[in-house]
Amino acid sequence: MDTLGALLHGFATALTPWNLLAVLLGTIIGTVIGVLPGIGPVASISLLLPVTIGMDMVSALIMLAGIYYGAMYGGSTTSILVNIPGEAASVITCIDGYQMARRGRAIW
Hints:
This protein has helices at residues 2-14, 17-34, 41-48, 57-81, 91-102. The chain has 108 residues and is mainly alpha-helical. The protein has a domain at 2-76.
């Protein structure tokens, strides 16, 4: 029962309004930075690390996770629309995604 209590405590901590706002802002900022070609998730986190210096430790880690996932999503956007991978994980997306974008099926 101790494991279930710890899991519920973790969810209660992660779902506070401040932490949800931190992950939302991190995801939006990470997506905007990740759209830039050549700047991947690791570079986005290292560029935005000073933003989290004054924050609570848990909120800062949650925001950095949002930045990471937002930058991964932003990198796929440039690889599909411009055929330039933003990071190594988007190289394969360039092959199929760009051809689909040229046919007008880039969104779905």
